[in-house]
UniProtKB/TrEMBL annotation:
It comes from the Eukaryota. NCBIfam families: PPR (TIGR00756). Belongs to the PPR family. PCMP-H subfamily. This is DYW domain-containing protein. One of its GO terms (molecular function) is zinc ion binding. PPR repeats lie at residues 107-141, 177-207, 208-242, 309-343, 410-444, 480-510, 511-545. InterPro entries: DYW_dom, E_motif, PPR_At4g14850-like_plant, PPR_rpt, TPR-like_helical_dom_sf. It holds the Pfam family PPR_2.
Length: 817
């Protein structure tokens, strides 16, 4: 058998079918109606009969019904049959039942019509109940009764009842009937029993085109795209020629495996067969090319379409969203509005996705208004999209408002809200919603854990990390690659880098994000050599590094002073992998050179950049100038930052500290004065420490904690102990106050308060874990080394950039941070 990648080459020898002839529309005379319905022509002499035959809507039927009753025709079998048929056709099965029940001598055809009506317009339970009534009334089933019932069982994924109908098919002698068995194949495929579907298909003595299309669609919809494509070749070998339905079925299969080549072959066949201009074929082609990364080709097909359905528009919008061009997606959406195309739930969800990617709150609110006006907000999926959009637009408060007003919340709703809180730094709310979700007996899935685990990672609490890991195991999610990746990242961010590596090594499957998480973990712990070694192992495997991988490994080199390795990786990124560096990569390179003291090289690197340097780049340069006390380059970097982001006070503080270190007090005063005039403020230092499942927050100089007096008293004693061990306070960045006051100010830094609290409230030998929102200052770093020495405690501090493991008077960073 030919492979799926070449199977459509076989189609090149097929001649296009002759175009169908279009018969002229007949005149609806009594004679033609009689021929068409096999009813004697004299019956049609009454005008009501002709009106029923010409009826095209429920509204018209309700207008005709009084005439039938007035003329005493309501009890005629002809009119009863026609009324039943029309009521069922227009979805009014209850009205059909009111016609059906009073009839005394019910013909079998009436039962068949009613069963069709129940199957198409009512619940599965009602359809099955009516079928039982048929059996009780000794009505002999016909094959189409079973095809209708099998379809409704499949649509409801009711395998148990479907098997009962399958048994009835066999009992009534239809096990060789192609129509009935096609229904059986469809049932098992829709119920995710594709192996059973194929067994039924394979046993059929004869198979028509509909049957082939059914099994091909079954494999495609069950995620077995390649098998579906292989079956197209087999159907041709057995004499069946693919039609437009076959093409529409296999195009998504090609899209699902991302095979542009196979999709193009199918496209070629569609052109030769004369199918290309069919709207469903064109729409499927738009979808296929978009999913295969050829959104430009998709747009060409879309623009050439003479007729478009709402599905065509949705496919094009989705294509642009998935290809990372949300602006063009919104342009198509706007064009759709301008042309008056009726929007669907899918349309607004795609538009909301585009707004979320753009972070465009105003357009997101506009789409929300459309949702309300068109009454599309009753769909929970639309509400979920609104939650995600508002969260990504940094308005988690509006997301919460949508969530609270949502009736019938699904697991997706909870996941969207938890992720929204986590992404907006509202860690406690994310965890509270996770707990509330469990209290309502909603079982978390992999998406839930992947949403909530990063929130736990931000708290850096090892005990809770272990609890979450246990929860993943209990819910059988510990084999999911994305959950495991999140756990690796969480343990690394909680300071347990060895545990993170153990999990990494245990994983049977690894995604590129898994490698990135582990490499980044090593980098933030100052284990640059381990990060480089792991990156080298990755290169030997089948998973290729992406742009994030290179950012992680270059940053790891930066934190460990591995300048040559970092330079090599930056060159390899483009030369060996064809990846264009982004602004973050340039920022990492400036950080790499700057931390190593190569400030002039870092500045030359900035001047030689092929793109205009951004905030990330100049921010790294300013930070390096602070570390190495370079006033000249610091001023240049700060000037650029003030132009790019004048509202950020942190850059002014850095420049001020550079001046203070250089004893340039006048310039420092000018920067501080400018900050006061413009209302800029430094982000206050905050350190967190967890004790007995409660997180305690400490701000620099704060005295609001219940144990404040005890903490400050302890720090006085501890300060004397570490001075005796060799600690000398660094007061260079503080001026205009007495030396004693300078020392008091240093003593009230948030990390020192948090460390003192931890030492006071834990037993000897317990490791202290601290989380700080800013970069740890030089004095606190030095003091913590001495604290670890005199108290014989290990202290792990995670600042905004990296981890510091203090033990026996040394730090894991080797004083390189």
């Amino acid at each position: 058998m030919m492979s799926s990648s070449s199977q459509f080459l076989h189609l090149t020898n097929n001649k296009p079918p002759s175009p169908p002839t279009s018969p002229s529309k007949p005149n609806l005379t009594s004679h033609t109606l009689s021929q068409r319905t096999h009813i004697p022509s004299h019956v049609y002499k009454h005008p009501s009969a002709l009106l029923l035959e010409l009826c095209t809507s429920m509204k018209e039927l309700h207008q005709i019904l009084p005439l039938i009753i007035k003329n005493g025709l309501y009890n005629e079998h002809l009119f009863q049959t026609k009324l039943l048929s029309l009521f069922c056709k227009y979805g009014c099965v209850n009205e059909a039942a009111r016609v059906f029940e009073p009839i005394e001598d019910k013909l079998d055809v009436l039962y068949h019509t009613m069963l069709k009506g129940y199957a198409k317009n009512s619940s599965l339970h009602n359809a099955m109940s009516f079928f039982v009534q048929m059996k009780c009334d000794d009505v002999k089933p016909v094959v189409y009764n079973f095809t209708y019932l099998l379809k409704v069982c499949g649509d409801n994924a009711d395998l148990r009842r479907g098997k009962e109908i399958h048994g009835q098919v066999i009992t009534n002698g239809f096990s060789s009937n192609v129509f009935a068995m096609t229904g059986v194949v469809n049932l098992y495929a829709k119920c995710r029993q594709i192996d059973d579907a194929y067994k039924m298909f394979d046993r059929m003595p004869e198979r028509d085109l509909v049957c082939w299309n059914t099994i091909i669609a079954g494999f495609a919809q069950n995620g077995l795209a390649r098998v579906a494509l292989d079956l197209v070749l087999r159907m041709q070998e057995e004499g069946q020629k693919p039609d437009s339905i076959t093409v529409v079925t296999v195009l998504p299969a090609a899209a699902n495996i991302g095979s542009w080549r196979i999709g193009k072959l199918i496209h070629g066949y569609a052109i030769r067969a004369g199918f290309e201009l069919l709207v469903n074929i064109s729409t499927a082609l738009v979808d296929m090319y978009s999913k295969c990364g050829s959104v430009g080709t998709a747009r060409l097909i879309f623009d050439r379409m003479k007729q478009r359905t709402v599905v065509s528009w949705n496919s094009m919008i989705h294509g642009y969203v998935q290809s990372g061009d949300p602006e063009e997606a919104m342009a198509i959406f706007q064009k759709m509005l301008d042309e008056g195309v009726e929007l669907t739930n899918v349309t607004v969800m795609e538009a909301l996705h585009a707004c979320a990617d753009l972070g465009d709150l105003e357009r997101g609110k506009f789409v929300h208004k459309l949702v309300d006006e068109l009454k599309l907000g009753y769909d929970v999926s639309v509400k979920n999209s609104l939650i995600s959009m508002y969260s990504k637009c940094k308005r988690v408060d509006l997301a919460a408002k949508v969530f609270e007003g949502l009736q019938g919340k699904t697991i997706v709703s909870w996941n969207a809200m938890i992720l929204g809180y986590a992404q907006n730094g509202r860690v406690n709310e994310a965890l509270n919603h996770f707990c509330e979700m469990q209290s309502q007996n909603i079982k978390p899935d992999s998406f839930t854990l992947v949403s909530v685990i990063p929130a736990l990672a931000e708290l850096s609490v090892t005990r809770q990390a272990k609890w979450m890991h246990g929860l993943a195991i209990r819910n059988c999610l510990d084999k999911n690659v994305f959950v495991m990746t999140a756990l690796v990242d969480m343990y690394a961010k909680c300071g347990a880098i060895r545990t993170a590596r153990k999990l990494f090594d245990m994983m049977e499957e690894r995604h590129v994000t898994t490698w990135n998480a582990m490499i980044d973990g090593y980098g933030t712990h100052g284990l640059g050599k381990d990060a480089v070694e792991l990156f080298n192992d990755m290169q030997k495997g089948t998973i290729k590094p992406n742009d994030i991988t290179f950012l992680c490994v270059i940053s790891a080199c930066s934190h460990s002073g591995l300048v040559q390795e970092g330079l090599r990786f930056f060159s390899s990124m483009k030369e060996d992998y064809g990846l264009e560096p982004a602004m973050d990569h340039y920022g990492a390179m400036v950080d790499l050179l700057g931390r190593a003291g190569q400030l002039n090289k870092a500045w030359d690197f900035i001047q030689d950049m092929p793109v205009e340097p951004g905030i990330t780049v100049f921010g790294a340069m300013l930070g390096a100038c602070k570390i190495h006390k370079n006033v000249e380059l610091g001023e240049k970097a700060a000037k650029k930052l003030f132009e790019l982001n004048p509202d950020e006070g942190g850059y002014h503080v850095l420049l001020s500290n550079i001046y203070a270190t250089a004893s340039m007090w006048d310039k420092m005063a000018k920067v501080r004065t400018m900050m006061e005039k413009t209302g800029l403020q430094k982000t206050p230092g905050c350190s967190l420490v967890e004790l007995k499942n409660e997180v305690h927050s400490f701000y620099s100089g704060s005295t609001i904690h219940p144990q404040s007096k005890r903490i400050y008293a302890f720090l006085e004693t501890l300060g004397e102990d570490i001075k005796a061990a060799g600690y000398v306070p660094d007061t260079n960045s503080i001026h205009d106050v007495e030396d004693d006051v300078k020392k008091q100010l240093l003593n009230s830094h948030s990390e020192k308060l948090a460390i003192a609290f931890g030492l006071l409230n834990t037993s000897p030998g317990t490791t202290i874990h601290i989380r700080k929102n800013l970069r740890v200052c030089g004095d606190c770093h030095n003091a913590t080394k001495y604290i670890s020495l005199v108290t014989r405690r290990e202290i792990i501090v995670r600042d905004m950039h990296r981890f510091h493991h203090f033990k026996n008077g040394t730090c894991s960073c080797g004083d390189y941070w």
